[in-house]
């Protein structure tokens, strides 16, 4: 389900399909950038070529890329007005997955990303201030002609009922919620400080396992078939 029509001729003459996922949220600090980076690394570990387009003026994903020693996944400092062109380039270069990291608030930049994507992902912490923005966000994306929306629970406490209550609340609003959850994990923050994600920093951790489950579910929802799972 590629809304953008991300098919392009590659030099060998066959059509190559890029899947594009926009990570958006009305609220700031819900985990958009962390999820975008988690997703592209999960995609690469599953045998795909993935890039991040950072259209947030804060450039958090770009700064993560600057700290990173590995040359992939590539993080591109992109302008919202040039998103279509950036996606064409990605298709021509044989990229399998583009994840767009957007600024907080569903305004021009994030909505352009939502329109050009196959899937829109909203990370949501189990907090009322986050939860109450998600139904409106879905409506805004839909009215703007954006892709289907799914929510992912992020930074959930390891114990208690907050995650299940949040899931029930979002489902009650008719929001599709990822069946897997990203917990509040120290490894997540420690990893990004080094230009890594938790799956690389602590491959045997709960955080890494959660990231793999969430990443694979989102990739499937976006219509991506992962080829092989690389050992981390
Ligand atoms: N699952 C998690 N466990 C622990 N810390 C997390 C988790 N997810 C995000 N964080 C931390 O929460 C903070 C906000 O995350 P992040 O920068 O990804 O949010 P954002 O939505 O991109 O923010 P902004 O709206 O400013 O762009 C960061 O310090 C990040 O390390
Ligand atoms: Mg961010």
Helix and strand arrangement:
Elements: E1 7-9, E2 15-17, E3 19-23, H1 32-45, E4 50-54, H2 60-67, E5 74-77, H3 83-92, E6 97-101, H4 108-115, E7 119-124, H5 128-131, H6 134-143, E8 149-156, H7 162-172, E9 176-177, E10 182-183, H8 186-192, H9 198-201, H10 206-221
Parallel strand pairs: 3-6, 3-7, 4-5, 4-6, 7-8, 8-9, 8-10
Antiparallel strand pairs: 1-2
Helix pairs in contact: 1-10
Residues 25, 28-34, 56, 58, 60, 104, 154-155, 182, 184-185, 188-189, 192 line the site of adenosine-5'-triphosphate (ATP).
**Topology, number of strands:** 10
* Cα radius of gyration in angstroms: 16 Å
How does the major sheet shape up?
Answer: 8 strands, parallel
Low-confidence stretches: 1-13, 228-232
CATH topology: Rossmann fold
CATH superfamily: P-loop containing nucleotide triphosphate hydrolases
By CATH reckoning, the class would read Alpha Beta
Q: Number of folding domains?
A: 1
Helix content: 25-40%
The number of helical elements comes to 10
Shape: globular
* Element pattern in H and E: EEEHEHEHEHEHHEHEEHHH
């Amino acid at each position: 389900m590629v809304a953008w029509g991300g098919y392009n001729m590659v030099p060998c003459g066959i059509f190559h399909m890029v899947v594009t996922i926009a990570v958006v949220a009305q609220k700031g600090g819900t985990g958009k950038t962390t999820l975008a980076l988690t997703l592209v690394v999960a995609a690469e570990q599953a045998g795909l070529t993935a890039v991040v387009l950072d259209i947030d003026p804060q450039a958090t994903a770009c700064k993560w890329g600057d700290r990173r020693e590995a040359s992939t996944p590539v993080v591109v400092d992109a302008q919202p007005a040039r998103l279509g062109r950036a996606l064409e380039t990605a298709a021509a270069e044989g990229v399998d997955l583009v994840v767009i990291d957007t600024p907080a608030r569903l305004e021009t930049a994030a909505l352009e990303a939502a329109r050009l994507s196959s899937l829109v992902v909203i990370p949501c912490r189990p907090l009322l201030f986050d939860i109450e923005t998600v139904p409106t966000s879905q409506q805004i994306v839909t009215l703007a002609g954006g892709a289907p929306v799914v929510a992912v629970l992020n930074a959930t406490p390891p114990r208690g009922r907050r995650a299940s209550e949040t899931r029930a609340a979002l489902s009650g609003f008719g929001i599709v919620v990822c069946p897997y959850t990203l917990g509040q994990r120290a490894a997540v923050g420690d990893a990004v400080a080094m230009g890594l994600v938790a799956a690389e920093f602590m491959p045997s951790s709960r955080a890494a396992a959660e990231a793999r489950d969430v990443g694979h579910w989102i990739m499937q929802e976006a219509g991506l078939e992962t080829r092989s799972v690389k050992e981390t």
